[in-house]
Each structure stands twice: as C-alpha cells, then as structure tokens.
C-alpha cells in the first residue's frame, strides 16, 4: 500500500533536542508513524508534557556531560528496548563572536554538544542496531555546515555542523554491512530558539526573504518529512548523504 514504507511500527527511536522546535516535531512524527519514542533533552519539564502526548519515554540529560550522554541509550534499552532509530537533533550556538574572538570554552562546548554527543550516541546505539540487523541514524545539521552565511559569525557552529557530514559518510561506510544507514539533514532557516532574533526584526525577515528562493517561511514541520523518510524503509537504499532542506538557499 502507498505509504507503508514510511511506517515504523514496533521500532524504538531516540530523539535528542526534543524539548522544543524541530526535535519535538520529529518525535511527534515518529510516534505517529508507529515508533516507540524516547525523547531526550535537558529541560525535563518540557519533556514530560510531550512524553505524555506521544506516549513516549522522557529522558532528562545534559548532552554537554559525557556521563549523562553515556547513560541515555542504556536507559532507553532497559525501558523500551534497543533503539533502531536515532535522530540527533540537539544543537546550539554558544557564541555570536567573530571567529578571531571566539573563546576556547565556547568552541569546545559547541563541538561537544553538536558533534561529539551525536557521535557518542551513535556508538551507543550501534550494538542494538547490529543485533536487530538494521538501523537508521539521522544527524540534524544546518546549511551553515555547507556554505558560509554572510553577516552571521558562527565559526565553531559551522565547523561542528560540517563535521556531522564527515561523520555521516564515515559511519555510513563502516556500518553498511550491518544494514545501518547514516544520513544528515541540513535545514535552512526556520524560526527556532536559535533564530528568533532574525525573525523578530523586519531587517532580519527581509534578509531571509532576499536570500531564500522559495517565497515561504519554513517551519519545523517542513523538515520533518525528510527525517521520517530517512529513518523509514522508504529510504532503505539511502546512506551517507547530507540532504539540504532549505528552500533553495544552497542552490543559489
């Protein structure tokens, strides 16, 4: 039947960054497709409401803390079963400084949250996916990892997101023999906690519209379809890819 390839019935999924925005939208989409979803974020109060809504498991964890990162997958496996799906949607910008002024601490925090934590969670999920004979990992990157963005200093953020594409191709090749697929989605601009300042000013909105070929503002729901496709059997022969969902930003 049409659409059956997108069903995720019986599969356990882990979604990080699920306390708001894209992560929450992804969690809702995977649950609607039949997955049992564990949602991970630092703000546990927000997780509790979403977990109740989707009948999922809330896992409070600060992904800047290595011990808390390492505890996520074992907890999910103990309570829901071994994960076959991992969506690394957590990320943040710790500095708006120009590259020459970024502090060592902000650079390190950015890389740890945006790149190291996804790598560690992928390692933790690997054994469960190998045992299941299949798995799908999706990293959420950004167009900032593909092209420079004029007027927005974000060197460490861009480096961390570009790193996800490198991690993606390497894991995809190493783990393909286990039928574990690894891909990255690189969203363009949409309103989020990171981009609120752009959308809250007329100047920012005009800048976005001038640089985005499609004439519509994006929302998290515009990104979710690509993630659902990549974690489902509909994309069973897709691995090692970074897919921009950006309204044409990188096509200019």
UniProtKB/TrEMBL annotation:
Pfam families: adh_short_C2 (PF13561). PROSITE patterns: ADH_SHORT. Gene3D superfamilies: NAD(P)-binding Rossmann-like Domain. InterPro entries: NAD(P)-bd_dom_sf (IPR036291), Sc_DH/Rdtase_CS (IPR020904), SDR_fam (IPR002347). Keywords: Oxidoreductase. It comes from the Bacteria. GO terms for molecular function: oxidoreductase activity, acting on the CH-OH group of donors, NAD or NADP as acceptor. SUPFAM superfamilies: NAD(P)-binding Rossmann-fold domains (SSF51735). PANTHER family: SHORT-CHAIN DEHYDROGENASES/REDUCTASES FAMILY MEMBER. Belongs to the short-chain dehydrogenases/reductases (SDR) family. This is Short-chain dehydrogenase. It comes from Pseudofrankia asymbiotica.
């Amino acid at each position: 039947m049409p659409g059956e390839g997108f069903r995720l019935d019986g599969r356990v999924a882990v979604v990080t960054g699920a306390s708001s925005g894209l992560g929450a939208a992804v969690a809702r989409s995977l649950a609607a497709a039949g997955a049992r979803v564990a949602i991970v974020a630092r703000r546990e109060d927000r997780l509790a409401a979403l977990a109740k809504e989707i009948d999922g498991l809330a896992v409070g964890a600060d992904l800047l803390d290595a011990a808390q990162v390492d505890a996520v997958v074992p907890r999910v496996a103990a309570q829901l079963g071994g994960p076959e799906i991992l969506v690394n949607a957590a990320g943040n910008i710790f500095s708006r400084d120009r590259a020459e002024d970024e502090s060592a601490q902000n650079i390190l925090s950015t890389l740890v949250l945006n790149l190291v934590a996804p790598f560690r969670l992928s390692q933790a999920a690997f054994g469960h996916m190998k045992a299941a004979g299949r798995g799908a990992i999706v990293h959420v990157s950004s167009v900032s990892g593909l092209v420079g963005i004029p007027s927005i200093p974000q060197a460490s953020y861009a480096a961390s997101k570009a790193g996800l594409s490198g991690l993606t191709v390497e894991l995809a090749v190493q783990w393909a023999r286990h039928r574990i697929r690894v891909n990255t989605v690189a969203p363009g601009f949409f309103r989020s906690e990171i981009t609120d300042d752009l959308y809250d000013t007329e100047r920012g909105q005009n800048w976005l519209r001038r640089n985005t070929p499609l004439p519509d503002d994006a929302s998290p729901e515009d990104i979710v379809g690509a993630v659902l496709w990549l974690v489902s059997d509909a994309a069973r022969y897709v691995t090692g890819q970074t897919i921009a969902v950006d309204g044409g930003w990188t096509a200019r």
